[in-house]
Design brief:
With 340 residues, this protein is of the alpha+beta class. Helices cover 25% and strands 29% of the residues. It folds into three domains: 3-80, Uridine Diphospho-n-acetylenolpyruvylglucosamine Reductase, domain 2, CATH 3.30.43; 85-227, Uridine Diphospho-n-acetylenolpyruvylglucosamine Reductase, domain 3; 232-337, UDP-N-acetylenolpyruvoylglucosamine reductase, C-terminal domain (Uridine Diphospho-n-acetylenolpyruvylglucosamine Reductase, domain 1, Alpha-Beta Complex), CATH 3.90.78. It has a five-stranded mixed beta sheet with strand order 1-2-3-6-4, covered by helices on one side. The protein has a five-stranded antiparallel beta sheet with strand order 7-8-13-11-12. Strands 14-20-19-18 form a four-stranded antiparallel beta sheet. The two termini are 23 Å apart. It binds flavin-adenine dinucleotide.
């Protein structure tokens, strides 16, 4: 049973012994010593003081769609409830607690373009810069001007411009320094007034012109592609792509191509699909305890019944070893775990 500890200022609320099982899409059983929600900078100052006083670590939590949780989190799990959106011309400032896909819908409804290909990505606005979310040839970093964060080391609100965010493929400054120092409070984007669809990605390039003629139609097409490819975490708990698509050298790219595995260029380097490697290694459907490699999408680990973190770690190790032995490629995990 969650125990209500108190409401500090107007919007900071803290509960103790909180069940997080329904707050992570992988469906891992987990409890937190404390869980708090915050809205304002004062909430964060106040929480900073509580954390300092009681020597507690702070763990940011959005929708839990990119997280592997331990069964006990000994600290304060912190979630933003700031769902604000401000639009000034092509500049959009969104609160960390807003759902990412809601932001995509709001921007399209206001004739602002650029986020269509990122439709349907689960999670919150605040978590999106963490791993620089991306899909179908578009990355968030292309649209971000800056990020407002609360710094839990300095007890102050800070602003990071795009350069300071150090975005890369599924990474950022915040992901590297993620161990509770930065809590993202606002994300500031610059979008486009004119619809300029990004159609290069193969799944999108194949679409008939009618489906890419407007921002709304492209969004619908992206949602349909996603629904056809990815298992629904509401029915089959999962954390999306389990591994990043790895970069490979030119020599490895040639070797992989000779084995029928297509590589492609990204940021002037070569990348290969991690799903294709897993498939080619014959790993689809293999299982460790309650978790298996999804038969629907080889890059997804599904919780098929009471999966534990140990099951996931075991399956990840088996997949990584098999892919490395067969193709000489190291796979890197995408979802985060809290450092406890
Ligand atoms: C079915 C499925 C499909 C997916 N498809 C894609 C995809 O196409 N592209 C893609 O890039 N990702 C994808 N993901 C991954 C995931 O949706 C994104 O990484 C998303 O941004 C995570 O948001 P969240 O709110 O759930 O974050 P959480 O899982 O709650 O947190 C993720 C990380 O961000 C940190 N964090 C959360 N909120 C904050 C904050 N306010 N300040 C600082 N740190 C914070 C957490 O501590 C954690 O380290 C998919 C996931 C699933 C389950």
């Amino acid at each position: 049973m969650n125990r209500f500890i108190g409401s500090f200022f107007m919007s900071l609320t803290v509960y103790s012994n909180v069940d997080l099982t329904r707050r992570n899409t992988m469906g891992l059983n987990s409890r937190a010593r404390y869980a708090a929600t915050c809205l304002t900078p004062q909430d964060l100052n106040s929480l900073f003081e509580i954390a300092q006083r009681d020597q507690l670590k702070v763990f940011p939590l959005g929708s839990g769609s990119n997280l592997l949780l331990h069964d006990w989190i000994d600290g304060i799990v912190l979630t933003s409830i700031d769902r604000s959106v401000e639009i000034e011309g092509v500049r959009v400032t969104a609160g960390a607690g807003l759902s990412w896909d809601e932001l995509v819908q709001i921007t399209l409804a206001n004739n602002l373009f650029g986020l269509e290909n990122l439709s349907g990505i689960p999670g919150t606005v605040g978590a999106a810069p963490m791993q620089n979310i991306g899909a179908y040839g578009v990355e968030l970093s292309e649209m971000i001007i800056g990020v407002e964060v609360f710094d839990f080391v300095k007890n102050e609100t800070r602003y990071f411009d795009r350069e300071a965010c150090q975005f890369g493929y599924r990474t950022s400054h915040f992901k590297v320094y993620q161990a509770g120092q930065y809590f993202i409070t606002k994300v500031i984007l610059e979008l486009k007034r004119h619809f300029q669809p990004v159609l290069a990605y193969s799944d999108i390039a194949r679409l008939p012109k009618t489906q890419t003629a407007s921002g709304q139609s492209l969004r619908s097409a992206v949602l349909a592609i996603r629904a056809g490819k990815l298992p629904d975490y509401n029915n089959t708990p999962n954390a999306g792509s389990f591994f990043k698509n790895p970069f490979v050298t030119q020599k490895m790219s040639q070797d992989l191509s000779s084995q029928g595995l297509r590589t492609y260029s990204f940021d002037g380097r070569f990348k290969v699909s991690a799903a294709a490697l897993i498939q080619a290694a014959g790993l689809v459907g293999i299982r460790s305890g309650g978790v298996r490699v999804s038969p629907k999408h080889a890059l997804v680990f599904e919780n098929v019944g009471e999966a534990t973190l140990a099951d996931i770690q075991d399956l990840a190790a088996r997949v990584r070893e098999a892919v490395h032995t067969q193709f000489g490629v190291q796979l890197e995990m995408e979802p985060q775990g809290y450092v406890v």
